[in-house]
Design brief:
234 residues; alpha+beta; 9-stranded antiparallel sheet; 29% strand; globular
Length: 234
């Protein structure tokens, strides 16, 4: 006559393992902050600088554009006064480029708007770059608009579609050590941001008080026999 173990304690380690893993998932999901340091934006600016010099567009077409860069980049609060060049009389061309503009080892699909015939003499060409953040840089649902003028690099950012304001950054002379940012509300009032603080502290908040969305993908595949042992009947 055979007999199976009747000691319930022999099954507790497996049950405890499941409980521990479940708790770990819950803690991770509730407590991870989707924050990156604002200093990371220096890399974004360098990415725009590289992109402005070597972008190879695909599917370039003429583009009917009304000059509203904010609407084009889904940053409604973008202030056209941030531009030092007049693009009102330019001819526009639209295309796309695959480029790792934020140095996260994942290429972004970047929409490019090229303004030809810009400036007071109509002799300048300025390219504008628009893309969205993602889970790899912990900035999902943030929209970016970058461009270069006169050797300097510029970047604006805001939660996509929000009208609460925008962040503006500049890298004079394409030198990351001199990069700086400021946060401006919808009324145009601006304040400088510390590059050592969290990115979200410089980014105008959502109207509803939200923050950067962080995706957490956790897969757990556990196959544990949780059945209670019973005495074998002879």
């Amino acid at each position: 006559m055979s007999q199976r173990s009747t000691n319930p304690g022999s099954r507790r380690p497996a049950a405890a393992l499941v409980t521990t893993l479940v708790c770990a998932v819950v803690v991770t999901a509730c407590c991870v902050s989707g924050a990156i340091k604002l200093g990371r934006i220096k890399g974004f600016l360098s990415g725009v600088f590289e992109l402005s010099g070597e972008a190879e567009l695909t599917g370039t077409t003429t583009y009917s554009f009304d000059g509203e860069l904010g609407a084009w980049a889904d940053i409604p609060s973008f202030d056209l006064d941030e531009l030092d060049v007049d693009i009102s009389t330019a001819s526009y061309y639209r295309g796309f480029v695959e480029f790792d503009v934020d140095y996260d080892a994942s290429e972004e699909r970047i929409e490019v708007l090229r303004a030809e015939g810009a400036g007071s003499t109509g002799a300048l060409t300025v390219s504008f770059f628009s893309w969205g953040g993602d889970k790899y840089t912990l900035d999902k649902n943030v929209c970016y608009l970058g461009w270069a003028e006169g050797g300097d690099v510029y970047l604006s950012a805001a939660y996509c579609g929000e009208t609460t304001g925008a962040m503006y950054c500049r890298m004079p002379g394409a030198n990351e050590d001199n990069a700086y940012c400021e946060s401006c509300d919808e009324g145009g009032s601006c304040s400088s941001c510390s590059m050592k603080k969290d990115f979200k502290e410089c980014l105008p908040a959502k109207a509803g008080g939200g923050s950067i969305d962080l995706d957490i993908d956790i897969d757990i595949d556990i196959d544990v026999d949780m059945d209670a042992d019973q005495h074998a009947e002879g």
